Structures are given as structure tokens and as C-alpha cells.
């Protein structure tokens, strides 16, 4: 993840540029930020222009489905189009510019809520409907804030969230094992699979991907014209296979 750090020297306006958070798409691809223009760390100008590119780490090309959110100090965050943002009539003092980059998901800025001032906040993240499956990581920048005593934010293991999502369709095959018999047909011996005994017949449902549902839930979604099914204790093969017995 690219992050521009500016070396401070003395003047009137001072800039801090943390890359606050990122959601990157799955598939091993990541994005980074390249700043093309940024004010000096200390500057006497009352305006500041930032321009930047979000590049795909693997292809080095601009990220097409990334959404950039810019935020200055405590002002409302806004979507910054074309990788450029200008701030005018700035007051003297330190300013913080935050750039949030989103891949397959995006934070919904208007959903930001303060649950407990200076302590607990909430926000909603939406995952791009164009992406079928993947992983979104929500992580805070290491040095983005300090407590009242001036201790800087330390990332704990639980300060990032990994979301795996999968909207792909799941298919199911129903299989049953029918006994094999050897049968003499004309002068040849053939193997045939046939039975008229459907007592204790085993039925297996093979899903194309693991499912979260229990055997009971799956059973409820099966219509059976005659008899009934009982779940058996067949191995689940990672929640992809469910076995039942006809009774
Ligand atoms: C980065 O590029 C790769 C290959 O070109 C592509 O599969 C991937 O989706 C891209 N990642 C993003 C976040 O756009
Ligand atoms: C601004 O930031 C600099 C360096 O980070 C710090 O030395 C200075 O005390 C800050 N000034 C104010 C007014 O917070
Ligand atoms: C996050 O982890 C730290 C220690 O690793 C723990 O003290 C803290 O309670 C955890 N916070 C939450 C919200 O789970
Ligand atoms: C399967 O599990 C999902 C997630 O818990 C649930 O939304 C769905 O209703 C369940 N399906 C059935 C047939 O119970
Ligand atoms: C299964 O039966 C229920 C009612 O008993 C019916 O509403 C549903 O359409 C049936 N499903 C199939 C796939 O036949």
C-alpha cells in the first residue's frame, strides 16, 4: 500500500498524509497509491492540491474499480474524482489529509455514526455487486490517531476485518448407490445396476460449494413423493455432501 510521508520543515501550514484505510479485492491483487502532487510538509500557501493515482500492484495500471474518498481534517469525506483534490482558504496550523481507497468494496461515508464520542464509531461497507466472490480487508492506518495522552494508535490483531464473500450459484447433484448385478444377456455377461428395494436406500446430495445449512434445513427443502428421508452420519466432505436414508 503506497503512502506518502512528508518530511516536515518549518513554515505555517503543516500536512500529514495518512492513508487511512483500504479495502482490496481478492485474487492476490492489491493496490497502492502514488502521489503525483502534494504540498510541502510546511507551506505558507492557503491552498493545497493533491493529485494521485491508485495503481494495481500486479499490472501497474490504474485501478478501474477503485473509489477514492478524500477527507481534510474533520470535514466531511467526499468522493474525489479524477484523482485530484484542491483545498482553499486553509487556516494556519496542522492539517491532515486522508485518502481512502476502495477496491471491490466501499465504505458508505454517510453511514458514519458516532456511537460513543471519541471511542466507538460505526460505518457500513458495501461490496461491489459486480464482483461475484472475493475478500475485502478493512484496516486502519497505523498512525492515524492518538489518545488524549498523545499515545499513538497501535494496531491490534482485531483492528482489521477480513470479509470473504461469495455470490456464486451453488448447484446440487443427487446421487444414490444402486446395487450391481451380473446378468447373462444372450451369451454375454453384463453388469447392470438395478433395484426394486428402496428400503434403507441411501441418497447423497453433492453441492458444488460448501453450504452453511444443516441436514434438517436441507431436508426441509426436499420434496419427496413417497416415503421419507432420515439424515445419516455420512462424512460431510467439508459441508459439501449430505447423506440421507429412505425409510
Ligand atoms: C489488478 O490486475 C489484475 C490483472 O490485470 C486483475 O485481475 C485485478 O482484478 C486487478 N485488481 C484491481 C483491484 O483492479
Ligand atoms: C504540528 O505538527 C508538528 C509535527 O508533527 C508538531 O511539532 C507541532 O507541534 C504541531 N502543531 C500544532 C499546533 O499542533
Ligand atoms: C482487541 O484485542 C485486544 C487484545 O488483542 C483486546 O484487549 C480487546 O478487547 C479486543 N477488542 C475487541 C473489540 O474485541
Ligand atoms: C440455508 O442457510 C442460509 C444461511 O443461514 C439461510 O438463509 C437459508 O434460509 C437456509 N436454507 C434453508 C432451506 O433453510
Ligand atoms: C414442494 O412442495 C411445496 C408444498 O408442499 C411446494 O410449495 C413447492 O413448490 C414444491 N417444490 C418443488 C420443487 O416441487
Question: Can you offer a commentary on this structure?
Answer:
It is a single chain. About 0% of the residues lie in helices and about 45% in strands. It is mostly beta strands. It has 2 domains: about 1-170, no CATH class; about 170-245, no CATH class. The strands form 5 sheets. Strands 1, 2, 4, 6, 7, 9, 12 and 13 form an 8-stranded mixed sheet that branches. The protein has a 4-stranded antiparallel sheet with strand order 14-17-19-18. Strands 3-5-8 form a 3-stranded antiparallel sheet, with no helix packed on it. Bound molecules: 2-acetamido-2-deoxy-beta-D-glucopyranose (NAG) (5 copies). One 2-acetamido-2-deoxy-beta-D-glucopyranose binds near residues 27, 31, 56, 58 and 63. Keywords: Signal.
Provide a compact summary of the structure.
With 247 residues, the protein is an all-beta fold. Helix content is 2%, strand content 46%. The strands form five sheets. Strands 1, 2, 4, 6, 7, 9, 12 and 13 form an eight-stranded mixed sheet that branches. It has a four-stranded antiparallel sheet with strand order 14-17-19-18. Strands 3-5-8 form a three-stranded antiparallel sheet, with no helix packed on it.
